[in-house]
Amino acid sequence: MTTFIMTGKYSVEAIKQISGERTTIAVDIIKQCGGKLVAAYATMGETDLLAIMEFPGINEAVKASVALNKALGISFSTVPALPVEDFDKLVGGKA
User: Fold this and answer.
1) What does the pLDDT read at residue 86?
2) What pLDDT score does 49 carry?
3) Alpha-carbon gap, residue 38 to 18, rounded angstroms
4) How would you write 15-84 as a 3-class SS string?
5) pLDDT in tens for each of the 95 residues of the chain?
6) CA 57, CA 46: separation in Å to the nearest integer?
7) Which helix (H) or strand (E) holds 95?
8) Residue (of 6, 56, 49) closest to 32 by Cα position
9) How far apart are CA 69 and CA 11, in angstroms?
10) What is the 8-class DSSP label of residue 93?
11) 2: helix, strand or coil
């Protein structure tokens, strides 16, 4: 599984619908796309949400990102996250 960081921004309409039920819907969408929610945080700053998720690959992460936007009105930015140790090995030679 690959780790992905998703940052989300609520639309005006999405803010009106904040609820625990919507969180359950989001987790179900992530699972349907083959993923797992590792952690989620409300940040309410430049971005409103930060989520750490695992997916088999980029295709599943993109599918989840779009499905979440459609279902919840939250616009997500999705990027892969590589552990620093793996990054060092990949680009730094010896590590």
Assistant:
1) 87
2) 94
3) 20
4) HHCCCHHHHHHHHHHHHHCCCEEEEEEECCCCCCEEEEEEECCHHHHHHHHHHHHHHHCEEEEEEEECCH
5) 999 999 999 988 888 888 889 899 999 999 999 999 999 999 988 999 999 999 999 999 999 999 999 999 899 999 999 999 988 888 886 64
6) 27
7) none
8) 56
9) 10
10) S
11) strand
Enumerate residues 6+ apart whose C-beta is below 8 A from 21: none
Contact residues for 71 (Cβ-Cβ < 8 A; gap 6+): 25, 26, 29
Contact at 8 Å (CB) between 51 and 39? Answer: yes
The 10 Å Cβ neighbour count of residue 48 is: 19
**What CATH number is associated with residue 61?**
3.30.70.260
Looking at the structure of the chain, the number of domains it has is: 1
Both tokens assigned to 95 = 């590590």
What domain range includes position 37?
2-91
* Count of C-beta atoms within a 10 Å radius of residue 44: 9
Token code pair at residue 44: 């309410």
Name residue 49's amino acid.
Answer: L
